[in-house]
Amino acid sequence: VVYWDEAWEVLVRRQGRYAALAAAQDRTLSAPNLVAWIREGLSPEQKQEQERQLEKRIQKEPGLGVAHALLGYLRYDQATGGCLNEAHDLEQEANKAQAAGRPEEAANLAQQAQARIRRSRELLTQSVELFQQDLRLCPGQSRSRYGIGRSLLWLGRPADAREWFVRSAAIDPLNWLHARESVLYYQDYVGA
């Protein structure tokens, strides 16, 4: 996928998905939703292959900013939709093991959860770096400003995240709605 229009074309026309968007000629898909929709229904192997192809594209055409942004959103998704969910599940299992009087198992599960949290932070840091590269290549767009904001939010830096959300919304005011949803989701997760 090279441009957002090409991604829209893949989703709507070639794959026959989101027919309502096609009928309305709606091309307002947000970048993170676009990445999620492209990956929807793919097996883990297909997702890995998709990621390899994107990394190859970046190596072949390092000046292609949108490829950096897409890979940034993939890293963000791996961190929040993968590692953090796994960490949460492991923490719950550790609590159950502790309550059942199995302290060694609980300690092992807690260590695994901490490893998943560390991996999540690494992926979020990588996503910020990828978004920053996109901004160096394509400084006039909002997608990576918003992506940096989301990544910083999950890295526990809400004040910095807000600053990037403001920068993104200055270019595309609809990003305030996306930012609000991101903050509410983050608050729900932290409160759980």
N-to-C order of helices and strands: HHHHHHHHH
Query: Strand count, sense and closure of the main sheet?
Result: none
Q: What level of helicity do the residues show?
A: over 70%
Determine the number of helices (DSSP H or I, runs of at least 4 residues). Answer: 9
Helix/strand structural class: mainly alpha
Number of strands: 0
- Uncertain spans, ≥5 residues at pLDDT below 50? 1-5, 11-19, 21-29
Q: Measured on Cα atoms, how large is the radius of gyration?
A: 18 Å
The N- and C-terminal alpha carbons lie at a distance of 36 Å
Coarse morphology? globular
* Average pLDDT for all residues: 80
Strand content: under 5%
Structure explained in plain terms:
- The chain has 192 residues and is mostly helical.
- It is built from 9 helices and no strands.
